[in-house]
Amino acid sequence: MKNGICVFAEQRDGNIQKVSLELLGKARGLAADLDAPVIAMLIGGAGISKKAPELIAHGADSVVVVEDERLGEFLTMPYARASVAVIHHINPQIMLFGATSIGRDVAPRVAGMLHTGLTADCTKLDVDSETKLLLMTRPAFGGNIMATIVCADHRPQMATVRPGVMQSLPKDEARTGETELLDVDFAPEDWAVKLLEVVKGSKKTVDITEAKILVSGGRGLGCAEKFELLRALADELGGEISSSRANVDACWIGKERQVGQTGKTVHPTLYIACGISGAIQHLAGMEESDYIIAINKDSFAPIFDVADLGIVGDLNVIVPKLTEALRKRD
Q1: What is the pTM of this model?
Q2: For residue 147, what pLDDT band results from cuts at 50, 70 and 90?
Q3: What is the rounded CA–CA span in Å between residue 9 and residue 7?
Q4: C-alpha closest to that of 152 among 117, 103, 186, 184
Q5: Among 7, 37, 285, 313, which is least packed by CB within 10 angstroms?
């Protein structure tokens, strides 16, 4: 009998990552369709078991912990071996990882060791009402189509899910659940790679998935310098700037600020789309924003179909006027 839905609870420096809480939130919805429990898999160094209550508070029914001082820093094979040991122990029907650098590294190796499939970089997960199979949807062919994939013959059904796509549940301190420590028999070859030193970069990168307000530019900007118009508006609003893929491909702005199927999925309180036509690939990354304002010269642009407020006009005129109005609001 397959036992529930397992979520890889990614941690860095002992801190549970946001994507893990998002996956727990989604797992709870899937579990309701399957009448199955949600189990969190937590792997880390000495003392990591102290983080188990946080996972339970965000939706896990139980937590299986592999705690070993050698696992304080991520290494691919030890984490893969520990993951496989947990999966053999609980025998889940579904296994979810975040599509982060760690998740994208360890999940394929786990799938290979288990001889099962893996659908990578998913943006949507559902359960088929008839077969009860996991429906894993992800962009394909450069984001031009959405493919829904099933794993009918092998278990667990495995997927990596993009950060920012799913919604985490509010923390509920009243939830209770079991925490189980699992010993893993590592093989000498699991430690063939030695970590000599950890060097942490000092460069600060902006995580647009955390921003409450985004002012986003599309192909309609015309040149990289026009992002300064958006930056001035974003500064007045206390937000960040972001972009569609076209400007990233043109090297006008960094990849870390790209919104869309091949970029990041965002859920800000306010999303201002400037010169963005609204191709489906971009909409998939921002259409769940609480309030969307679109500025575009083309009154028939698809972005207006999802906008709460649409302004037909030249962004070069409208954005500076809006910025100036905000400066005078006090």
Answers
A1: 0.75
A2: confident
A3: 6
A4: 117
A5: 313
Question: What distance lies between CA 245 and its chain's CA centroid?
Answer: 18
Helix H or strand E encompassing 8: strand 5-9
Distance CA 308, CA 287 (A): 11
DSSP string, 89-109: HH--SEEEEESSHHHHHHHHH
Beta pairing partners, 294:
273, 310
Residue 29 near residue 49, CB atoms below 8 Å: no
φ, ψ dihedrals at 65, nearest 5°: -110, 130
The two structure tokens encoding residue 12? 């860095």
Give burial (CB, 10 Å; 0-12/13-18/19+) of 192. Answer: exposed
Residue range 68-119, pLDDT digits in tens: 999 999 999 999 999 999 999 999 999 999 999 899 999 999 999 999 999 9
Residue 173 phi/psi, 5-degree rounding, is -65, -20
pLDDT score of 67 = 93
Strands 94-98 and 5-9: parallel
The answer for residues whose C-beta is within 8 angstroms of residue 56's C-beta and 6 or more apart is 40, 62, 63, 175, 176, 177, 179
d(CA 13, CA 141): 36
- Residue 189: how many other CB atoms lie within 10 Å: 9
Distance of alpha carbon 248 from alpha carbon 260, whole angstroms: 11
Instruction: Name the pLDDT band for 228 (thresholds 50, 70, 90).
Output: very high
Ordered by where they begin, the domains of the chain are 5-191 (3.40.50.620), 208-327 (3.40.50.1220)
Is residue 41 within 8 A of residue 17, CB to CB? The reply is: no
Go through 260-284 and write b for each residue having 16 or more CB atoms within 10 A of its CB, e for each that does not.
bbbbbbbbbebbbbbbbbbbebbbb
